[in-house]
Amino acid sequence: MLYLDHAATAPVRPEVLDAMRPFLTGVFGNPSSHHTYGEAAASALDEARSRVARMLGMRSGDVIFTSGGTESNNLAVKGIVLAALARGRRHLVVSPIEHESILESADHLRRFHGVEVAAAPVDALGRISAAGLSQTLRDDTALVAIGHANNEIGTIQDVPALAAAARSAGVPLHVDAVQSAGWLPLADLGADATAVAGHKLGTPKGIGALAVRGRVALEPLMHGGGQERGRRSGTENVAGAVALATALELADAERDEVNTRLRASTGRFIASVQALVPQASLTGDPVARLPGTASFTFAGVSGEAVLLELERRGVVSSSGSACAAGSDEPSHVLLACGVSPAVAQTSVRFTFGREALPPDLPERLAALVAEAVRAVAHH
Prior knowledge:
By secondary structure, this protein is α/β, with parallel strands linked by helices. The chain has eleven helices and twelve strands. It is 41% helix and 13% strand. The strands form three sheets. Strands 2-8-7-6-5-3-4 form a seven-stranded mixed β-sheet, sandwiched between helices. A three-stranded antiparallel β-sheet has the order 9-10-12. Helix 1 runs antiparallel to helix 7 (238-276). The chain starts with a strand and ends with a helix.
Protein backbone atom coordinates (compact mmCIF):
# COMPACT_ATOMS: atom_id res chain seq x y z
CA MET A 1 0.00 0.00 0.00
CA LEU A 2 1.13 3.53 -0.76
CA TYR A 3 0.26 5.86 2.13
CA LEU A 4 -0.53 9.39 0.92
CA ASP A 5 -2.32 10.81 3.97
CA HIS A 6 0.62 12.31 5.87
CA ALA A 7 -1.38 15.48 6.62
CA ALA A 8 -3.61 13.30 8.84
CA THR A 9 -0.71 11.58 10.58
CA ALA A 10 2.81 10.37 9.82
CA PRO A 11 4.48 7.11 10.87
CA VAL A 12 6.64 7.30 14.00
CA ARG A 13 10.28 7.90 13.10
CA PRO A 14 12.79 5.36 14.46
CA GLU A 15 15.09 8.18 15.65
CA VAL A 16 12.19 9.67 17.63
CA LEU A 17 11.39 6.32 19.22
CA ASP A 18 15.05 5.91 20.21
CA ALA A 19 15.10 9.38 21.79
CA MET A 20 11.91 8.60 23.78
CA ARG A 21 12.89 5.15 25.01
CA PRO A 22 14.93 6.17 28.10
CA PHE A 23 11.95 8.18 29.37
CA LEU A 24 9.58 5.25 28.92
CA THR A 25 11.89 2.90 30.84
CA GLY A 26 14.60 3.91 33.33
CA VAL A 27 13.96 7.67 33.62
CA PHE A 28 10.30 7.31 34.55
CA GLY A 29 9.97 9.80 37.43
CA ASN A 30 7.32 12.49 37.76
CA PRO A 31 9.03 15.79 36.88
CA SER A 32 7.24 17.49 39.81
CA SER A 33 8.77 15.07 42.35
CA HIS A 34 11.72 16.40 44.39
CA HIS A 35 13.93 13.34 44.35
CA THR A 36 16.52 11.80 42.04
CA TYR A 37 13.96 10.16 39.71
CA GLY A 38 11.84 13.29 39.45
CA GLU A 39 14.79 15.61 38.93
CA ALA A 40 16.11 13.48 36.06
CA ALA A 41 12.71 13.71 34.36
CA ALA A 42 12.46 17.46 35.05
CA SER A 43 15.90 18.02 33.52
CA ALA A 44 14.88 16.17 30.33
CA LEU A 45 11.64 18.17 30.18
CA ASP A 46 13.50 21.48 30.54
CA GLU A 47 15.93 20.54 27.79
CA ALA A 48 13.08 19.51 25.45
CA ARG A 49 11.30 22.79 26.18
CA SER A 50 14.40 24.80 25.23
CA ARG A 51 14.82 22.80 22.01
CA VAL A 52 11.19 23.32 20.97
CA ALA A 53 11.42 27.04 21.83
CA ARG A 54 14.48 27.39 19.59
CA MET A 55 12.60 25.84 16.65
CA LEU A 56 9.65 28.20 17.19
CA GLY A 57 11.70 31.37 17.75
CA MET A 58 10.34 31.69 21.28
CA ARG A 59 11.79 31.70 24.79
CA SER A 60 11.91 28.47 26.75
CA GLY A 61 9.38 29.78 29.27
CA ASP A 62 6.91 30.52 26.45
CA VAL A 63 6.46 26.82 25.59
CA ILE A 64 3.53 24.87 27.04
CA PHE A 65 3.41 21.14 26.29
CA THR A 66 -0.07 19.88 25.37
CA SER A 67 -1.73 16.73 24.05
CA GLY A 68 -1.61 17.93 20.43
CA GLY A 69 -2.79 20.52 17.93
CA THR A 70 -6.44 20.59 18.97
CA GLU A 71 -5.60 21.29 22.61
CA SER A 72 -2.98 23.87 21.63
CA ASN A 73 -5.48 25.77 19.46
CA ASN A 74 -8.18 25.56 22.15
CA LEU A 75 -5.77 26.90 24.78
CA ALA A 76 -4.61 29.74 22.52
CA VAL A 77 -8.03 30.88 21.30
CA LYS A 78 -10.01 30.43 24.51
CA GLY A 79 -7.15 31.25 26.86
CA ILE A 80 -6.11 34.53 25.21
CA VAL A 81 -9.67 35.74 24.56
CA LEU A 82 -10.89 34.87 28.09
CA ALA A 83 -7.95 36.80 29.56
CA ALA A 84 -8.78 39.77 27.28
CA LEU A 85 -12.46 39.86 28.28
CA ALA A 86 -11.44 41.44 31.59
CA ARG A 87 -10.03 44.37 29.58
CA GLY A 88 -13.27 44.77 27.60
CA ARG A 89 -12.02 43.07 24.44
CA ARG A 90 -14.87 40.92 23.14
CA HIS A 91 -14.01 40.59 19.43
CA LEU A 92 -12.22 37.64 17.80
CA VAL A 93 -11.07 37.33 14.19
CA VAL A 94 -10.58 33.96 12.48
CA SER A 95 -10.76 32.92 8.83
CA PRO A 96 -13.49 30.66 7.42
CA ILE A 97 -10.94 28.02 6.31
CA GLU A 98 -9.49 27.28 9.75
CA HIS A 99 -9.22 23.85 11.36
CA GLU A 100 -12.24 22.83 13.42
CA SER A 101 -10.27 23.27 16.65
CA ILE A 102 -10.11 27.03 15.98
CA LEU A 103 -13.63 27.42 14.55
CA GLU A 104 -15.28 25.40 17.33
CA SER A 105 -13.30 27.27 20.01
CA ALA A 106 -14.49 30.55 18.50
CA ASP A 107 -18.07 29.29 18.45
CA HIS A 108 -17.81 28.23 22.11
CA LEU A 109 -16.66 31.75 23.05
CA ARG A 110 -19.54 33.23 21.05
CA ARG A 111 -22.19 31.02 22.66
CA PHE A 112 -21.01 31.02 26.28
CA HIS A 113 -19.10 34.29 26.65
CA GLY A 114 -20.81 36.69 24.25
CA VAL A 115 -17.69 37.11 22.09
CA GLU A 116 -18.27 38.55 18.62
CA VAL A 117 -16.56 36.43 15.96
CA ALA A 118 -15.58 37.97 12.62
CA ALA A 119 -14.24 36.20 9.54
CA ALA A 120 -11.21 37.54 7.68
CA PRO A 121 -12.04 37.07 3.98
CA VAL A 122 -10.25 34.49 1.80
CA ASP A 123 -9.95 34.44 -1.98
CA ALA A 124 -10.56 31.51 -4.34
CA LEU A 125 -7.07 30.11 -3.62
CA GLY A 126 -7.62 30.24 0.15
CA ARG A 127 -5.40 33.29 0.74
CA ILE A 128 -5.97 35.94 3.40
CA SER A 129 -4.67 39.41 2.55
CA ALA A 130 -3.19 41.77 5.10
CA ALA A 131 -5.52 44.50 3.82
CA GLY A 132 -8.57 42.23 4.20
CA LEU A 133 -7.49 41.29 7.70
CA SER A 134 -6.95 44.92 8.70
CA GLN A 135 -10.52 45.77 7.72
CA THR A 136 -11.90 43.20 10.20
CA LEU A 137 -9.89 44.52 13.18
CA ARG A 138 -11.48 46.75 15.82
CA ASP A 139 -10.41 48.58 18.97
CA ASP A 140 -11.80 45.71 21.04
CA THR A 141 -10.31 42.83 19.00
CA ALA A 142 -8.78 40.37 21.46
CA LEU A 143 -7.07 38.00 19.02
CA VAL A 144 -6.55 36.99 15.41
CA ALA A 145 -6.24 33.21 14.89
CA ILE A 146 -4.97 32.03 11.49
CA GLY A 147 -3.55 28.78 10.07
CA HIS A 148 -0.03 29.02 8.59
CA ALA A 149 -0.83 26.39 5.94
CA ASN A 150 -4.24 24.90 5.27
CA ASN A 151 -4.68 21.25 6.15
CA GLU A 152 -6.93 20.49 3.16
CA ILE A 153 -5.67 22.55 0.23
CA GLY A 154 -2.12 23.29 1.37
CA THR A 155 -2.24 27.05 0.76
CA ILE A 156 0.45 28.90 2.73
CA GLN A 157 -0.46 32.29 4.24
CA ASP A 158 1.91 35.26 4.27
CA VAL A 159 2.05 35.20 8.07
CA PRO A 160 4.71 37.94 8.49
CA ALA A 161 2.44 40.36 6.57
CA LEU A 162 -0.63 39.30 8.60
CA ALA A 163 1.37 39.60 11.83
CA ALA A 164 2.43 43.14 10.87
CA ALA A 165 -1.21 44.09 10.18
CA ALA A 166 -2.31 42.70 13.55
CA ARG A 167 0.62 44.31 15.38
CA SER A 168 -0.13 47.74 13.90
CA ALA A 169 -3.63 47.45 15.40
CA GLY A 170 -2.26 46.23 18.74
CA VAL A 171 -3.85 42.79 18.36
CA PRO A 172 -2.03 39.53 19.16
CA LEU A 173 -1.81 36.87 16.42
CA HIS A 174 -2.10 33.13 17.06
CA VAL A 175 -0.77 30.90 14.27
CA ASP A 176 -1.90 27.30 13.88
CA ALA A 177 1.34 25.77 12.51
CA VAL A 178 0.24 22.15 12.89
CA GLN A 179 0.45 21.49 9.13
CA SER A 180 3.44 23.72 8.39
CA ALA A 181 5.75 22.57 11.21
CA GLY A 182 8.67 20.69 9.70
CA TRP A 183 7.90 21.91 6.19
CA LEU A 184 8.30 25.65 6.74
CA PRO A 185 10.54 27.65 9.11
CA LEU A 186 8.56 28.95 12.07
CA ALA A 187 11.07 31.06 13.99
CA ASP A 188 10.56 34.37 12.13
CA LEU A 189 6.79 34.50 11.60
CA GLY A 190 6.22 37.35 14.05
CA ALA A 191 3.39 35.45 15.76
CA ASP A 192 2.49 35.97 19.42
CA ALA A 193 1.36 32.35 19.81
CA THR A 194 2.16 29.23 17.76
CA ALA A 195 0.62 25.74 17.91
CA VAL A 196 2.34 22.54 16.73
CA ALA A 197 1.54 18.81 16.93
CA GLY A 198 4.05 15.98 16.99
CA HIS A 199 2.22 13.23 15.13
CA LYS A 200 2.39 15.09 11.81
CA LEU A 201 6.20 14.99 12.21
CA GLY A 202 6.82 11.40 13.29
CA THR A 203 6.08 11.30 17.03
CA PRO A 204 3.43 9.10 18.61
CA LYS A 205 0.01 10.74 18.82
CA GLY A 206 -0.72 12.73 21.97
CA ILE A 207 2.00 15.38 22.17
CA GLY A 208 1.92 18.99 21.00
CA ALA A 209 2.97 22.43 22.12
CA LEU A 210 1.66 25.96 22.30
CA ALA A 211 4.22 28.74 22.54
CA VAL A 212 2.82 32.04 23.84
CA ARG A 213 4.99 35.13 24.22
CA GLY A 214 5.28 36.26 27.84
CA ARG A 215 3.57 39.60 27.25
CA VAL A 216 0.33 37.89 26.14
CA ALA A 217 -2.09 37.12 28.99
CA LEU A 218 -3.42 33.54 28.92
CA GLU A 219 -6.24 32.10 31.03
CA PRO A 220 -5.58 28.39 31.74
CA LEU A 221 -8.21 25.83 30.71
CA MET A 222 -6.77 22.95 32.78
CA HIS A 223 -6.60 23.52 36.53
CA GLY A 224 -4.78 21.46 39.13
CA GLY A 225 -1.23 21.15 40.31
CA GLY A 226 0.09 24.21 38.48
CA GLN A 227 2.42 22.48 36.01
CA GLU A 228 3.63 24.36 32.90
CA ARG A 229 3.96 27.54 35.01
CA GLY A 230 0.28 27.31 35.94
CA ARG A 231 -0.93 27.47 32.34
CA ARG A 232 -1.69 23.79 31.81
CA SER A 233 -1.95 21.62 34.90
CA GLY A 234 -1.38 17.86 34.67
CA THR A 235 1.64 15.57 34.91
CA GLU A 236 3.78 16.25 31.86
CA ASN A 237 4.41 13.75 29.07
CA VAL A 238 8.21 13.78 29.33
CA ALA A 239 8.83 11.15 26.64
CA GLY A 240 6.43 12.99 24.33
CA ALA A 241 8.18 16.32 24.92
CA VAL A 242 11.53 14.75 24.03
CA ALA A 243 9.91 13.18 20.96
CA LEU A 244 8.51 16.53 19.79
CA ALA A 245 11.84 18.31 20.19
CA THR A 246 13.63 15.52 18.30
CA ALA A 247 11.09 15.43 15.45
CA LEU A 248 11.17 19.21 14.97
CA GLU A 249 14.98 19.23 14.83
CA LEU A 250 15.14 16.29 12.39
CA ALA A 251 12.62 17.94 10.05
CA ASP A 252 14.46 21.26 10.28
CA ALA A 253 17.79 19.65 9.35
CA GLU A 254 16.28 17.88 6.32
CA ARG A 255 13.92 20.63 5.17
CA ASP A 256 15.75 22.05 2.16
CA GLU A 257 16.59 18.68 0.63
CA VAL A 258 13.17 17.14 1.30
CA ASN A 259 11.19 20.17 0.10
CA THR A 260 13.16 20.50 -3.13
CA ARG A 261 12.63 16.83 -3.92
CA LEU A 262 8.95 16.83 -2.95
CA ARG A 263 8.08 20.03 -4.83
CA ALA A 264 9.45 18.46 -7.99
CA SER A 265 7.65 15.10 -7.62
CA THR A 266 4.37 16.66 -6.43
CA GLY A 267 4.51 19.11 -9.34
CA ARG A 268 4.91 16.21 -11.79
CA PHE A 269 2.02 14.37 -10.13
CA ILE A 270 -0.26 17.43 -10.37
CA ALA A 271 0.63 18.01 -14.03
CA SER A 272 0.04 14.32 -14.88
CA VAL A 273 -3.35 14.21 -13.14
CA GLN A 274 -4.44 17.37 -14.96
CA ALA A 275 -3.32 15.86 -18.28
CA LEU A 276 -5.04 12.50 -17.71
CA VAL A 277 -8.26 13.53 -15.93
CA PRO A 278 -10.24 16.20 -17.82
CA GLN A 279 -12.44 17.15 -14.85
CA ALA A 280 -9.54 17.40 -12.35
CA SER A 281 -9.23 20.84 -10.79
CA LEU A 282 -6.40 21.66 -8.40
CA THR A 283 -7.58 23.42 -5.24
CA GLY A 284 -5.53 25.93 -3.26
CA ASP A 285 -2.64 28.11 -4.34
CA PRO A 286 -0.67 26.45 -7.18
CA VAL A 287 2.58 28.11 -6.03
CA ALA A 288 2.36 29.06 -2.34
CA ARG A 289 1.43 25.58 -1.16
CA LEU A 290 2.94 22.93 1.10
CA PRO A 291 5.50 20.95 -0.93
CA GLY A 292 3.84 17.55 -0.46
CA THR A 293 0.16 18.50 -0.78
CA ALA A 294 -1.98 18.01 -3.90
CA SER A 295 -5.73 18.40 -3.54
CA PHE A 296 -8.20 18.07 -6.42
CA THR A 297 -11.90 18.18 -7.12
CA PHE A 298 -13.23 15.78 -9.75
CA ALA A 299 -16.53 17.35 -10.87
CA GLY A 300 -19.28 14.81 -11.43
CA VAL A 301 -17.82 11.94 -9.38
CA SER A 302 -17.99 11.18 -5.66
CA GLY A 303 -14.75 11.89 -3.83
CA GLU A 304 -15.48 9.08 -1.33
CA ALA A 305 -16.03 6.61 -4.20
CA VAL A 306 -12.70 7.67 -5.77
CA LEU A 307 -10.98 7.03 -2.41
CA LEU A 308 -12.40 3.48 -2.32
CA GLU A 309 -11.28 2.82 -5.89
CA LEU A 310 -7.81 4.13 -5.09
CA GLU A 311 -7.54 1.92 -2.01
CA ARG A 312 -8.44 -1.11 -4.17
CA ARG A 313 -5.45 -0.10 -6.30
CA GLY A 314 -3.15 0.15 -3.28
CA VAL A 315 -3.28 3.94 -2.70
CA VAL A 316 -4.44 5.43 0.61
CA SER A 317 -5.46 9.10 0.56
CA SER A 318 -8.27 11.21 2.04
CA SER A 319 -11.06 13.62 1.20
CA GLY A 320 -9.75 16.39 3.46
CA SER A 321 -9.36 16.88 7.21
CA ALA A 322 -9.14 13.62 9.17
CA CYS A 323 -10.99 15.42 12.01
CA ALA A 324 -14.03 15.83 9.75
CA ALA A 325 -13.83 12.35 8.17
CA GLY A 326 -17.15 10.56 8.15
CA SER A 327 -19.06 13.81 7.79
CA ASP A 328 -21.46 14.06 4.85
CA GLU A 329 -21.07 17.82 4.79
CA PRO A 330 -18.99 19.36 1.99
CA SER A 331 -15.65 20.81 3.06
CA HIS A 332 -16.06 24.21 4.77
CA VAL A 333 -12.63 25.12 3.36
CA LEU A 334 -13.68 24.60 -0.25
CA LEU A 335 -17.04 26.32 0.29
CA ALA A 336 -15.21 29.37 1.70
CA CYS A 337 -13.03 29.38 -1.45
CA GLY A 338 -16.17 29.64 -3.59
CA VAL A 339 -16.43 25.98 -4.67
CA SER A 340 -20.04 24.81 -5.02
CA PRO A 341 -21.30 22.23 -2.48
CA ALA A 342 -21.72 19.59 -5.21
CA VAL A 343 -18.16 20.02 -6.49
CA ALA A 344 -16.74 20.27 -2.95
CA GLN A 345 -17.97 16.73 -2.29
CA THR A 346 -15.76 15.43 -5.11
CA SER A 347 -12.49 16.45 -3.43
CA VAL A 348 -9.55 14.11 -2.85
CA ARG A 349 -6.36 15.12 -1.01
CA PHE A 350 -2.96 13.49 -1.53
CA THR A 351 -0.29 14.35 1.05
CA PHE A 352 3.21 12.91 0.65
CA GLY A 353 5.72 12.18 3.40
CA ARG A 354 9.43 12.87 3.70
CA GLU A 355 10.69 9.50 2.48
CA ALA A 356 12.20 9.17 -0.99
CA LEU A 357 9.80 7.75 -3.60
CA PRO A 358 10.55 5.73 -6.78
CA PRO A 359 11.46 8.12 -9.63
CA ASP A 360 8.49 7.13 -11.80
CA LEU A 361 5.93 7.25 -8.99
CA PRO A 362 4.26 10.62 -9.84
CA GLU A 363 3.25 9.41 -13.29
CA ARG A 364 2.25 5.90 -12.11
CA LEU A 365 0.15 7.39 -9.33
CA ALA A 366 -1.56 9.81 -11.71
CA ALA A 367 -2.47 6.88 -13.97
CA LEU A 368 -4.07 5.11 -10.98
CA VAL A 369 -6.02 8.27 -10.13
CA ALA A 370 -7.27 8.45 -13.71
CA GLU A 371 -8.31 4.77 -13.56
CA ALA A 372 -10.15 5.32 -10.27
CA VAL A 373 -12.03 8.39 -11.55
CA ARG A 374 -13.03 6.54 -14.74
CA ALA A 375 -14.23 3.54 -12.72
CA VAL A 376 -16.46 5.76 -10.57
CA ALA A 377 -17.73 7.74 -13.56
CA HIS A 378 -18.74 4.54 -15.41
CA HIS A 379 -20.24 2.85 -12.36
